[in-house]
Amino acid sequence: KLRDPDQPEFHQAAEEVLSSLWPFLEANPKYLKSGIIERLVEPERVILFRVPWVDDKGQVHVNRGYRVQMSSAIGPYKGGLRFHPSVNLGVLKFLAFEQVFKNALTTLPMGGGKGGSDFDPKGKSDAEVMRFCQSFMTELSRHIGADLDVPAGDIGVGGREIGYMYGQYKRLRNEFTSVLTGKGMTYGGSLIRPEATGYGCVYFAEEMLKERGDSFNGKRVTISGSGNVAQYAAQKVMELGGLVISVSDSGGTLYFPQGMSEQQWHQLMELKNEKRGRLQEMTGDNAEFQAGKTPWHLACDIALPCATQNELNEQDAKTLVANGCFCVAEGANMPSTLEAVDVFIEKRILFAPGKAANAGGVAVSGLEMSQNAMRMLWTAGEVDEKLHSIMQSIHAACERYGKEEDGFINYVKGANIAGFVKVADAMLAQGIV
Ligand code: NDP
Predict the structure, then answer these.
(1) Which of 87, 101, 155 to mutate to test the pocket of ligand 1 (most atoms within 8 A of CB)?
(2) Does 114 qualify as catalytic in the annotation?
(3) Mind telling me which residues the site (Important for catalysis) is annotated on (predicted)?
């Protein structure tokens, strides 16, 4: 905190991991030697750069670009790029730190990184977004590579942005390699990558429910966000017989008293991915827009926060539990504050942290890299099956390290220890580097 006083999100993520790891570290003192912890909280490298671009009126803008290369202990740096006005170094360090443990949990050989810019794609024309992406990649291309660092999408970076950045990378480097994931299907993408984070989150929650002999069937599910993760989480919940009673965006919550219909899901996909519109435009029968509200006041059985960090606070957690919610799986990264997580764990409800529940996205990104390396394309069924089994193995790892004497599974502890052990063992083997 003394070194980086202005990085509260990073401190929060580090505190969450280190405090839940502490009893394990004391019981296994080899991990307290060799400066493992001190090295884990310091990025291997941070790249910070100017991104100048020209808007449609000829006006010059300057944004700031970043890539945090956190850990390459178990593989090349891997993690998304975020374009959002709230992006700063502290936010990206928190995301990169989380990514290290998450990637270790996937069972695939990927290190951790994260990057992005404070650029806001909202309200920009396609041409403006393209010019920005080209300028961003012009600098970033010097620091990434298929065996070095492989970025992907995140908030504000979807198929359109990945396409523009990939085109620019190829032009600059004169090579067609797997340097980005989340690519389009015509140029090296993987089937099921767009669906992977949302589906994976629901597969993980399904495993938690199975522990109690339960399922999604007939459950009321609140979802926040309405972007990539929320969209496919909603689709999978409906497929498993659950009722999606909300989605949200930064304008408010769209409440579906009778559960979202399949037709409304298609409407949502068109609104968000093609028209790039706002949720309030979807108001109608069985769709009530609640301006300025988050979904946590709605009575539900299961909550899937899929928007952004710190979107669910202590009071929200208490309200959810009081209204009957007994399972929370984080599709977003760190959507619950530390105090909210404490409420879920104290009340002994099923709670899956993002690094376990949303690891499906990066897992399928890893599978995209494998397919590119083999010059092959697996079918949707094959990728989905691999995703499903990766989520089940993450669940098993959490259970192994997180099961307490009374049978309660502390998924926060389980995920942190399982991810840590793999990375720390690799660091011990590689010496002080
Ligand atoms: P998108 O940009 O597709 O969607 C983000 C959604 O969250 C939008 O509905 C957006 O609303 C809402 N949102 C973003 N910031 C805020 C805010 N400050 N307040 C309220 N609502 C907000 O992003 P993704 O769906 O890809 O990512 C969502 C979360 O999932 C992030 O935490 C991301 O790090 C995490 N994640 C994503 C993965 C992926 O594969 N995409 C993988 C693993 C984790 P609006 O449009 O109004 O801003």
Answers:
(1) 155
(2) yes
(3) 154
